[in-house]
Amino acid sequence: MHKKHYEQLQESIYAETLPNGLKVFLQPKSEMAKTYAIFSTNYGSVDQTFVPLDGEEKITVPEGIAHFLEHKLFEKEDRDVFQDFTKQGASANAFTSFTQTAYLFSATSHIEENVTTLLDFVQDPYFSDKSVEKEKGIIAQEIRMYDDQPDWRSFFGTIQSLFQSHPVRIDIAGTVESIQEITKEDLYTCYNTFYHPSNMTLFVTGNIDEEKMIELIRANQDSKKFAPPAKIERFFPEEPETVAEKKKQVRMPVSVAKCMVGIKENTDYASPEAYLKQELLTDMVLDYYFSKSGVYYEELYKNDLIDDSFGFETSLEKNFGFSIIGGNTKEPDRFADTVKGMLQRMKDHTVTEAEMERMKKKTIGQMLRAMNSLEFVSNRFIQYHLAGVDLFDIVPAIEKLTAADANDFLKEWFNEDRLAVCQILPQEA
Amino acid sequence: MKIAGEKIITGKGATLHLIPTKKYKTISIAVKLQAPLERETITARALLPYVLQQGTASLSDARALRLKLDDLYGAILSISGTKKGEKHIITLRLDVANENYLSDRTPLFERAVNLLREILFEPKVENGAFTESIVSRETQTLKQKMVALKDDKMSYANMRLIDEMCKDESYSLHVHGYEEELKDMDGSKLYGFYEKMLKQDKMDIYILGDVDSELAEKAVQPFLERDVSPIEERAASVHSTSADVQEVIETQDVQQAKLHLGYRTNIRYDDSDYAALQVFNGLFGGFPSSKLFRNVREKHSLAYYAASRFESHKGLLFVFSGIDPKDYQKAKEIIDAQLASMQAGEFEGSEVEEVKDLIVSQILETIDNPAGHIETLYQQVMGNKNITIEQMLDTIQQVTTEDVLQVAKKVQLDTVYLLTNKEAEKNA
């Protein structure tokens, strides 16, 4: 087990890759009551086309299958794993994102039993025709719930207007129709391909003793047999430079319209360092202009184009990336034109050293605040790790940034062809 | 792991609660202002949190204030209003980095407290009134908030359930206020409400983090010395119980129906059976192992979520579920059957023990988060109770199966609210 200590943040991380390929990270925090563990596979909704383990030909699986699989892993032949965690005082959960499926629990007692349960249930699938059929009703209601949420519809609508062929444009849960096609055989195919320990990461943080914990994990993994690690071949269609739809409008029964401006981000990072730099700079410049201290926020607010639902976010992954700016607005067209104009103007602005210092201070302070949360640290650590970046090196990376970096970034950021607009509009009478 | 103790210092104008802990890389400051929930003041109190963020005596506008926060290493300010039972609480929160984790060690805490003091006591004022242009712009924001609430179907259904269930009780007042009251709101009127708040509200200040007690006490002196004339406590609204259950069905163009049920428990935070109510809720609908989730979701595949939650200061309990519109009757029957089963004592001693452990764990996890810790302690101020967190956990552990059964028998269905679509109604 390898220890890395981060002096300024007063944190230590213990890391080990087991013989079966599983990557384990432990972060003891004895002042916390709780322990949080997350067991994550590098497999999400975008991994739709791949060569199955022991297969030769690539296949494409039904939309929403990674999320369906996440639901079904909790059910075993004789019981529901939620109840196992409950008996051990833990609360368990799981989530599926574009690129990740993760299983997790938090607890303040029975930590060793709960870690064992977490490893064992994820590594022991049981799918039957009957239980697959039963789940379709539950997931259909989950999809319907999201269908009624204007925030979700505007987020996804923006992604669909940005991407022409990349599977990020497919809803993570699939559709009520697409999930009907899913069979138990499909689930086993995806499971066997993507849930090999060498494609997975375990992060445990909180009130733990790192030596005892790694012993337990090693013994648990040594007792199980796995196929030798194999490289997973995944396929992604060529995504054109330009957006799918410059302007998309969705009608639904809302009282207030919404408008989002999306940017299809460049993803040709030269190195993990370049990736991190691009991510930090994108966040920082969006924050600089569009957070409540930003000049553009002020302008939008004074012109009655936004309310307090306004926000922005960036997501950069290996082969897709986007930023989204928007919220409720009374004038969706004027909002879209104004924000697009602002984005163009940003490219001509020169950030001064003093402005850069303020941006850096803010980003560092907010990173410290986020680190209060065990969930944030574990989830982000894994995400960054897959991109080759160490979460705890972020503060020094921010400290190194200069105004020149921001200015270079702004010049090259995007062009008009990579912008799209998505509006949620009330239904016509 | 040791639970951080709370040190309480009572001043004439406010009560200071110090919670020293090294758990976090930030220091959290929260100021709570408590007043009765009233139709006459609710709209102004909903508007004040917006107006107070638009500048101070020395920071001319909202952006100047935000830049000041950025300079304090991205300190996070939030001001919001909530209702708890029949009280309204305005909370000002400021979270600031602990400079021990920064390469620049210039102290931030005192500057943060001073900024919060300025925001609360020295807002931007012209001739004894808030600036008209600010009040009218923030009125717009608040109005849009009231309207947008309708687009979040879960919140909307909650609000409508309480509207119908608590018609004659102040608890049904809308936390965002009322549009008609905004019509003749102006800078001087709102300033009058602000002065009343400063003069009459009960104020509690929380400081949580790795900060020296003496330093903290000194920093908040202006709050502790506030000139105050509190008003008398009002009696809670009386609700006359009727055996009839009312059913309210509304239609909108929705994909999923929201079935929300309201119950009376008449058990409040300072009641001796409050801990048993927590355990009851855990067995009934508080966790994935509860009866509601196991039956409505896992057994009958009717919903993605089906859960219950209780209101601590008013004695209410709510059940929520999102279902296919055609399944209304079936879902309602299954939910009713779960309560009947609780009332018939159909739960094992071992399940009670499991739920007790889950609740203890939930409380411990809540206090692993700065805001969660502060809210847990503030519950006590609200409920006029003063016990340590250890004692709180103890009372949970002492709950017996019989205690839970007695609570179950007190739970009475009052109102069933369904938000569904037109097709379902036609077929019903």
UniProtKB/TrEMBL annotation, chain A:
Residues 63-168 form the Peptidase M16 N-terminal domain. InterPro entries: Metalloenz_LuxS/M16, MPP/UQCRC_Complex, Pept_M16_N, Peptidase_M16_C. Pfam families: Peptidase_M16, Peptidase_M16_C. Residues 182-362 form the Peptidase M16 C-terminal domain. NCBIfam families: YfmH_fam. This is Peptidase M16. It comes from Terribacillus saccharophilus. The lineage of its organism: Bacteria, Bacillati, Bacillota, Bacilli, Bacillales.
UniProtKB/TrEMBL annotation, chain B:
InterPro entries: Metalloenz_LuxS/M16, MPP/UQCRC_Complex, Peptidase_M16_C. Residues 189-357 form the Peptidase M16 C-terminal domain. This is Peptidase M16. It comes from the Bacteria. It holds the Pfam family Peptidase_M16_C. PANTHER family: INACTIVE METALLOPROTEASE YMFF-RELATED (PTHR11851:SF186), METALLOPROTEASE (PTHR11851). The lineage of its organism: Bacteria, Bacillati, Bacillota, Bacilli, Bacillales.
